[in-house]
Amino acid sequence: MTDRIREFLHDEAAGGLAILAATIAALLWANLGPDYDGFWHTELGPLDLHHWVNDGLMALFFLIVGLEIKREVVDGRLQDARTAALPALAAVGGVVAPIVIFVALVAGGEGAQGWAIACATDIAFAVGLIALLGDRVSDGTRVFLLAVAIVDDIIAIAIIAVFYAEGVSLTWLLAAAALVVVIKLVPRLWLPLGVLLWIAVHESGVHATIAGVAVGLLLPLAIGERVEHRLHPWSAFVVVPLFALANAGIEFGGGALGDALSSTLVWAIVAGLVAGKLLGVSGATLAALRGGGTLPAGMPRRELYGVAAAAGIGFTVSLFIADLAFDDPALVERAKIGIFAGSLLSGLLGWAVLSRARRV
Q: Which stretches are transmembrane (predicted)?
């Protein structure tokens, strides 16, 4: 494992602890503190605080995702088609199976628009879980999980861009396309041009965070690595924890928990994250292995099931998609409870399997 990968994994793992702390703070604030929802819906210029975090600051998170994708495709684990095939197939299986389970359970009923919620993997929490297990998990397993999560992010970004765009404006979309060309030609001006691209994408109707991904993919590798080195800690320790603080607050009083437990939407998300990811990632990988694929060096096959379970920790991107999918606050709250429960169960299952795998 290279020093570059170790640094990325370290930041993501430590960032997972920061996200966990922010999540706990959000839950305490929503249930014991002053007006949680009122604060985050405070107007600040053209957007409220909630949208400044979700649409604005999260563009930095997606910029880091774009940079990591670019690096892995150009000079990393996704560079060679044969090497990339196994985690790519695993990620596809881990996206398709949760969607199938969700759609089958919801069956076009309330919350059907949230079909993509359960297909996401939270890199920070999943990598954090692996990090906490220390040397009980092989380096090959860490690399495989990171590659699966990166391809998963690519798919999630495509889903957000294609299926969760609203009222697309062709004029602003053309302006965004022109800015993409300019950034490609003059990458050193990525920051001011990136801000303009964010405005154009936001006004186009496509979710503004896609601008961050685009900039990350456009930057040359040398510039991108410097940008990622400087901004990744800000993304891991400030932006994503702040996103958790702004989105993870759920009020459990007033019968909300009882309503959630009787909601098909909640159980569809839980089943998608826990069973869908486990079956999808492991099933697709085993099929690829039978076809001649090979696991990363040093990764025992028994650890595959722990990775597949850990991939069900959907948290950050799942919350993000839930906020895009639903206009009804009640559905958003139920989706959050499903995401919390599914991610927690997936994390505990992944921990149990990986702990036992190394002892065996």
A: 12-29, 88-108, 114-134, 143-164, 170-186, 193-222, 234-253, 265-289, 304-325, 337-354
CA 81 to each of CA 21, 84, 89: distance values in angstroms, whole numbers, following the listed order: 39, 5, 12
Q: Provide DSSP, 29-73.
A: HHHHSS-HHHHHT-EETTEEHHHIIIIIIHHHHHHHHHHHHHHHH
Residue type, 92: V
- In this prediction, residue 359 carries a pLDDT of 59
Find the range with the poorest average confidence among 1-15, 263-277, 304-318. 1-15
Contact 227, 190 (CB under 8 A): yes
Of 210, 111, 86, give the one whose Cα is nearest residue 157: 210
Tokens of 248: 């993870």
Count of C-beta atoms within a 10 Å radius of residue 235: 26
Q: 336, 360, 359, 340: which is closest to 348 by C-alpha?
A: 340
Report the C-alpha gap between 143 and 308 in whole angstroms: 13
Alpha helices in 113-208, H assignment, sequence order: 123-132, 139-163, 170-185, 190-204
CA 11 remoteness from chain centre: 15
- What tokens appear for 22 in the block? 């922010």
For the chain, the structural domain boundaries read 3-164+207-359
Name the residue with tokens 């109707």.
Answer: 205
The CATH number of domain 3-164+207-359, selected from 3.10.20.30, 1.20.1530.10, 3.40.250.10, 3.40.50.300: 1.20.1530.10
Q: Under 8 Å CB-to-CB from 110, ≥6 apart: which residues? A: 263, 264, 265, 331
pLDDT tens for each residue of 107-155? 888 899 999 999 988 887 887 787 777 777 887 888 888 888 888 888 9
